[in-house]
Please model this.
Amino acid sequence: MLDAIPLRPGMEVLEVGTTPDMTFPDQNFFSKKALGLGCKVSVTSVEDCSNMARENGFQWIPWSEVTATGFRQTFDCVISAAVLEHVGETAGQLAHLRFLGRLSRHWVAITTPKPRPLV
Model:
């Protein structure tokens, strides 16, 4: 997926629904990759990720700011990893997708966990 998005130095990237958890090396992998490629990376979440953002060199934007009516900033690429399954049924998922689209000028990338096989 990362190879399909032409990330370039100077692009503005937002990760929506990031996690403050830094115990696993693959946490916030997309934002780390984008930063390594020279992108300006911002992160937002319903959780307080300010410490994680500071430690990784990301800009922290509190969720209350991003969801405020007057928030007009857009980004070249918006990623939302493993969030869609937490926003409710169809109506909540569609609202989340519209929200991501409003924040992005060019690219939206969405991931969901691999489904478990039914037993």
